[in-house]
Amino acid sequence: MNDFFKYHGLGNDYLVIEPGRFLGKLSPAAVRLICNRNRGVGSDGILWGPLAAQDPAPRVSIFNPDGSEAEKSGNGLRIFARHLWERRLIAQRRFAIATLAGEVEVEVLDDTGSMIAIAMGQVRFDSQAIPMTGPAREVIRESLHAGGEVWTVTAANIGNPHCVVPVAEPSEALARRIGPLIERHESFPRRTNVQFMRKVDDHAIRIEIWERGAGYTSASGSSSCAAAAAARRLGLVQSPVSVHMPGGILRVELDLEDRARLTGPVAAVAHGDFHRDFLAELGLVRR
């Protein structure tokens, strides 16, 4: 067994680290150091699992590069599914993965695990579920002040919080300038992921993403689901929706109750071991 396995989904990269390899747990400081692209291996997050192998569903903890824990990640879960399939830790093409936000159903669509579909759950626009401050309501076409401007936003939750901002032209510069302001806006007590979105056609949107705890990213599965559901709620698109991002395209299918099925590729990059000096910095000991 190696110390880490690296994969990416449309350029959004994660390291899978199996707890059975080490004594103890990952600290937030260790997560930050491993994810650092200059002093560590470098990644957009860490998938710490499988945990509790005796459970019916393999369990994973999803860590952002700032050391915080995410409830759910569409790219991360597809990557973790491929890892389980490739390492033969599961035998069936259809199985469940347990997350902080509950179980998700997974389907491996090819023999190599390079194409994965995830039943991401229901996209909810309820302010209490997001969560968002103020009276209980559906957060559709609301005004939000950030960066000296007023933005019209639609907020949602798909196990983690999102804020979708329709704009004339999404750009990396816009995401980097306004994304962190909305992420930490006082209206979102648990912070939020942010998507700047425009319609391409009746079955396609384009988004730029600022991810909570990670920053600007080239692709995001949960962001794709939230943005697609918001676009449909706003009357812009119909299901299925192709979500175009700098890293590539993900497919989102939505049923009448806004339950989302996410399909997209996963690529394996590398696997390896931490140097003993780096292990000492991390405070990790191999079993």
Written description of the protein model:
The protein has 287 residues and is an alpha+beta fold. It folds into two domains: 4-114 and 267-286, Diaminopimelate Epimerase, Chain A, domain 1; 122-262, Diaminopimelate Epimerase, Chain A, domain 1 (Roll), CATH 3.10.310.10. It has five helices and 20 strands. It has helices at 28-35, 74-86, 172-183, 221-233, 276-282, and strands spanning 4-9, 12-17, 22-23, 46-51, 59-63, 69-70, 94-99, 102-108, 115-122, 142-146, 149-157, 161-166, 193-201, 204-211, 215-217, 241-245, 248-254, 259-265, 267-272, 285-286. The strands form three sheets. Strands 7, 8, 9, 10, 11, 12, 13, 14, 15, 16, 17 and 18 form a twelve-stranded mixed β-sheet that branches. A six-stranded mixed β-sheet has the order 6-5-4-2-1-19. The longest helix is centred in the first third of the chain and has 13 residues, at 74-86. It is globular, with a radius of gyration of 18 Å. The model has no long low-confidence stretch (mean pLDDT 96).
Characteristics:
single chain; 287 residues; alpha+beta; Diaminopimelate Epimerase, Chain A, domain 1; 2 domains; twelve-stranded mixed beta sheet
